[in-house]
Amino acid sequence: MVTHVPAEAPGDERGALLAFVEAQRGALRRTLLGLTEEQAASRPSASGLSLSGLLKHVAEVELNWLRMAQQRPNEKQRDQSTWQESFVLVGEETVPQTLAFWDAVAAETQEFIHAVPSLNDTFPLPPAPWFPKDGRVSMRWLLLHLIEEFGRHAGHADIIRESLDGRTAFELVALANA
Fold it and tell me: What DSSP state is assigned to residue 129?
């Protein structure tokens, strides 16, 4: 890890988990520093992923999990015919707009997690071949899953950024802190 996640106050599990979620968000955001829209949309590696596409994907993934936890409809729900659009900016979408969208989702996630009575509270998983029948997960699981999801994609983003211009995560941390 290239940044230090501050220790939570003693016993503040929510704060600790949210801090690690935010650290992984930051890792993804930093990979876009100083890039044009064209650079952010490019695919310089063997992968079909781009930095702007990863940004949109993680923002929509977080919204989807938040809506499941809230047991509310997802206003950006994707189906098989639109799934690929979650990995590319379309129409008039821009990196700044997508960052602002993700910031709003992140703020809503934080507010929601602070409001739930317990991290042990659960919510149902939707029917899907990859979920257990009648499965449920806890709010704690949700936060751990977001850390996992963002961490995986932050690694993808690091490779894409380094392929674009040679900048590493360490350099981007220094640039962000300058």
Answer: T
Tokens of 156: 């993808």
In whole angstroms, what is the distance from residue 133 CA to residue 40 CA?
Answer: 39
CA–CA distance, 102 with 20 (Å, rounded to integer): 16
pLDDT digits (tens, 9 = 90+) for 112-171: 999 999 999 999 999 989 999 999 999 999 999 999 999 999 999 999 999 999 999 999
Residue 58 identity: V
The Cα 54–Cα 86 span in angstroms is 8
Res. 10 pLDDT band, cuts 50 70 90? confident
pTM exceeding the 0.90 threshold for the entire prediction: yes
d(CA 3, CA 19): 12
Give ∠ CA 57-36-156 in degrees, rounded to 5.
40
Q: Give me the chain's average pLDDT, please.
A: 94
Both tokens assigned to 4 = 């230090």
Q: What is the separation of C-alpha 58 from the centre of its chain, rounded to a whole number of angstroms?
A: 4
Contact between 63 and 105 (Cβ < 8 Å): yes
What is the distance between the alpha carbons of residues 64 and 105, in angstroms, rounded to a whole number?
A: 10
Angle between helices 139-165 and 13-30 (to 10 degrees): 20
Which residues make beta-bridge pairs with 118?
A: none
**Partners of 138 in the beta sheet?**
122
